[in-house]
Amino acid sequence: MGAPAYDYHSSSSKRLLPLDPLGRRFIQYFYHGWSFIEAPVPSWGGRPSWRTEKRYPMEPRNIWSKYQDPELLLGLSFDKYTNYFVLDIDRKSRNHPEKSRENFDGILQALEDIGMCRVLAVNSSESEGIHLYYFLPYPVYSIALAVAVKQALFQAGFRLKSGQLEIFPNPKPYNPDKITSFRSHRLPLQKNSFLLNRDLQPISNSVETLLDWADLTASSQDMELLGEALKAAEEWLSAQYYIRRGKNSAEEWCWDLEETIEQGWTGSGQTNDMLLAFARYGIIFKHHLGEELVEYMLSTALS
Fold first, then answer.
1. In whole angstroms, how far apart are CA 204 and each of 12, 196, 300?
2. Average pLDDT in the chain
3. 297 CB neighbour count, 10 Å cutoff
4. DSSP code of residue 20
5. Which residue, 302, 297, 173, 186, is CA-closest to 236?
6. Beta carbons of 134 and 168 less than 8 angstroms apart
7. Structural contact between residues 221 and 112, judged by C-beta atoms closer than 8 angstroms
8. Alpha carbon distance 146, 3 (integer Å)
9. pLDDT for 22-59, tens place per residue?
10. Which three-class secondary structure state does DSSP give residue 262?
11. CA-CA to 238 of 20 to 30 Å: which in 122, 202, 252, 267?
12. d(CA 83, CA 140)
């Protein structure tokens, strides 16, 4: 499920890392140089005029250099793997704690249910929107993580919508034959951005503190529980790709799974394959997740 983060040893950009040790720590999380966005710092209360650059990637030292420019705002996209994700809640959103603390806490609980036990909150700008960062101890598939988070929020009654609740990496359409970019997000602690304490009050704009907290939150996540959510997300993604290939393909797959389940065990050494069939059928065609999926798989196995 996991993969190494930015591989300094095998990368052709090994000599282009930041000289600053703090910069090297920073790019262990924020390292994807393709499809970045940038904008001059606007006047107070103004909206940034973002520009997307897709012609070339930034090297790690350039990411760190641009990030430190006080007159520039920088945002990054995501690679195939990521070791963090972000929830974006605008100040006017019904999910903002000043609008509804119940909704805000419900979002935190939904993510805790899939293993995301520690969060780092950032005031994104003077607009008082909140970015919730969840750092991980090692990278996972970005698209699977996006779908797992979306499904957890959906199960808790929350819907993704611009201006209300957004996630990065975003759950973009999945097609292994046609690679598309994830959306980019504004990096934390740039102009008028601050770390928030548990009471959601601004307390620091120290990048070193940000990274210390990122390491602490990463070490506190329940990766076994998240792994289950990621597996369900990968099965869902496979199903969507299969279904888009044509209605007949989806129907045939459904029939094949039903036949496998109906026949049950016919010999030794089949348990893993049978459990996988139960999980696929339960997730894709029964729309079960979490405890519902466990109960379905158990009852099906026993029958």
1. 35, 7, 53
2. 88
3. 19
4. S
5. 173
6. no
7. no
8. 16
9. 999 999 999 999 999 999 999 987 889 999 999 989 99
10. helix
11. 267
12. 6
